[in-house]
Design a protein that fits this description.
alpha+beta, 4-stranded antiparallel β-sheet, about 350 residues, Rieske Iron-sulfur Protein
């Protein structure tokens, strides 16, 4: 739409004649009537096409709910190029994506075939509203509604309303997937599960990636190692517990024992080696950016900064809780092990945490 300057003598709403803010065609752009403008049968055919898209969108929403309820989340299906993929995810993505596409495609077809395609301009007025602006705006709205065909094409209107009414249903249904427990976690509350990790007394610490056990000599002063429990892979394969890694991931850092100002428990380090959760307490980003000189741990997501020499306390950023520390020691073979589970909840806060 193109604005043009006020014409000389244009009424601003203070005189007796009302300001004319209606639309007028652009003179130098010829308009070629479409088939639907001249042929009622073509217009009805286009209406049926649009309505069909909206109806198919409604059907796909229903199929989305059916697939969510009936398809086993652990089942797979072979898709060329992609290989084996989760059958449930594939069905949900296909139906939800198709429903969104059909609403959009129907709206485009409606606009291209049935709505006016004449370019128009509107007379520009000053920033002060004329007296009859409200009446003129209402009149323009009624004109736009009439030209769009929303009131005239009842079939399109009803099917569009139906598609939009059903569209939020998948959003409500998938809220359940914000919490999906593994078979091993069934029956436990989210608060309990998020407060427990795989670390137990004697759990051997292994390097993440190589899964090799770590000895104190492997970690020089200023060094950092990302680590996990030795039984992590076994638990993931046997129980399907994909949340175990995110809760149990830790970092090991070594500093001069004299530089350790405080810990979350007496003697929780081993010869200057400290173990902290790797998951930021702000929104749960993994952290491994360690500054040796200051002993600061920096979260790359929102720049929360923790002082590992001072109990992992927050020194900067939006995080409101310190990084949980894991008490460590060595076993009979001299490998680093956990002495207990975390004594504080790991990861970002949630409302169930007191």
């Amino acid at each position: 739409m193109t604005d043009i300057t006020p014409q000389e003598g244009h009424d601003q709403g203070h005189g007796s004649a009302p300001a004319k803010l209606g639309y007028s065609p652009v003179a130098d752009i010829p308009h070629k009537p479409r088939l639907t403008d001249t042929d009622p049968k073509a217009a009805r055919r286009a209406e049926r096409q649009v309505a069909t898209m909206f109806l198919l969108s409604m059907l796909l929403i229903v199929l989305f709910v059916v697939a969510y309820v009936t398809i086993d989340p652990s089942s797979t299906v072979y898709i060329p190029v992609f290989g084996d993929v989760g059958a449930s995810n594939f069905a949900l993505g296909l139906t939800m994506g198709g429903a969104v596409f059909l609403i959009g495609a129907g709206a485009i077809q409606w606009a291209k075939k049935l709505m006016p395609d004449v370019e128009v301009v509107q007379q520009r007025h000053d920033m002060q509203s004329p007296r009859r602006a409200t009446a003129e705006a209402a009149a323009n709205y009624e004109r736009g509604k009439e030209e769009s065909g929303f009131a005239r094409f009842t079939l399109i209107r009803r099917t569009l309303i139906g598609a939009l009414v059903l569209f939020p249903i998948p959003l409500v249904v998938v809220l359940r997937d914000l919490w999906t427990a593994s078979p091993a976690e069934a029956g436990k509350s989210p608060a309990d599960l998020l407060s427990e990790t795989l670390w137990t007394k004697g759990s051997r610490i292994v390097s993440d990636g190589t899964y090799l056990p770590v000895k104190p000599a492997d970690l020089p002063v200023g060094g950092l190692v990302s680590a996990v429990p030795a039984d992590l892979q076994e638990v993931e394969e046997a129980e399907g517990n994909l949340n175990a890694r995110t809760k149990a991931a830790i970092i090991l850092v070594r500093m001069d024992p004299e530089e350790i100002r405080s810990q979350q428990g007496e003697g929780w380090d081993y010869q200057g080696i400290l173990a902290y959760s790797k998951i930021c307490t702000h929104v749960g980003c993994p952290i491994a950016l360690y500054e040796q000189r200051t002993h600061h741990l920096l979260c790359p997501c929102h720049q929360s900064t923790f002082d590992l020499a001072d109990s992992g306390n927050v020194v900067f950023g939006p995080a409101a809780r310190r990084m949980p520390q894991l008490q460590i020691g060595v076993d009979e073979e001299g490998y680093l092990v956990a002495m207990n589970d975390f004594q504080e909840p790991v990861g970002p806060s949630f409302w169930e945490r007191g």
